[in-house]
Design goal:
three-stranded parallel β-sheet; globular; six-stranded parallel β-sheet; 9 strands; alpha/beta; 38% helix; 246 residues
């Protein structure tokens, strides 16, 4: 009987509202470490659509010297993928593009030139090195906002240097930074410590948005296993927030 109830737990993939927008994914093919082909992109989009996600703002990496993506080549790849979706008779999804910007030395150059792709022309998805935060992070966040953007920090729960200094999360919020939780962090995909911090951030009402951060089918396999009732109860109200980013 116990195994029956375990098997019938609701997965997070059944809880997405109709107007949910996945604001963090890597669905454009051959542009970063995400999808490797148009066929793979379609397969991922079909699976996500099966969960009820019909709106995407896909966000390829921009990382100097590794993925030197620009608004021009990102938009060109989006154009190609959109046309390919039509050839596959997929008309019920809407896909836009922004980018996920690593805060490195080149980022400030792009910011000064305003050569950036933002979500809804306003929200800028940024990420930090996993080793340590930029020394001048406070200054950069200020510059982002002076330039007219609202920074969204991707997967704050994954920056382990903040785990032992949890109050830094509150400071980042005070500096005007919004937080986007990776839904995969509610599994053990990144490790139990990440899940614990994700739960605490949710409990402290510090999470503003969510995203799948889908790179491949394995990520979606993991997503389908997320069924912890306590975590789902915490994250479900936050799923509604993404609709404002259409």
């Amino acid at each position: 009987m116990l195994s029956f109830f375990k098997k019938n737990k609701k997965s997070i993939t059944t809880l997405f509202p109709n107007n949910y927008v996945d604001i963090h994914s890597h669905l454009l093919p051959n542009i970063d470490d995400g999808s490797k082909s148009f066929e793979e992109s379609v397969a991922l989009i079909k699976r996500l659509s099966g969960y009820g996600i019909k709106n995407f703002v896909t966000t390829p990496h921009v990382l100097d010297g590794v993925w030197n993506n620009t608004p021009q080549n990102i938009n060109q790849k989006l154009f190609e993928l959109t046309n390919y979706l039509k050839t596959q008779e997929i008309y019920d999804v809407k896909i836009r593009a922004a980018a996920e910007y690593l805060i490195d030395a080149n980022f400030e150059i792009l910011l000064n030139k305003k050569e950036l792709l933002a979500i809804k022309n306003k929200y800028l998805l940024i990420e930090l090195s996993y080793f340590n935060p930029p020394i001048n992070l406070k200054e950069i966040l200020f510059k982002i906002q002076i330039a007219g953007y609202q920074p969204i920090l991707a997967h704050p729960e994954r920056y382990t240097f903040y785990h032992s200094n949890y109050k830094e999360y509150f400071k980042l919020k005070e500096l005007g930074c919004l937080f986007q939780l990776n839904l995969l962090s509610l599994s053990q995909h990144y490790g139990s410590k990440i899940t614990k911090i994700a739960e605490q951030l949710l409990k402290d009402n510090l999470i503003d948005f969510t995203g799948t951060d889908t790179h491949n089918n394995h990520h979606l396999n993991v997503l389908e296993t997320i069924n912890d009732r306590k975590l789902l109860k915490l994250v479900t109200p936050i799923l509604e927030n993404n609709a404002q980013l259409i």
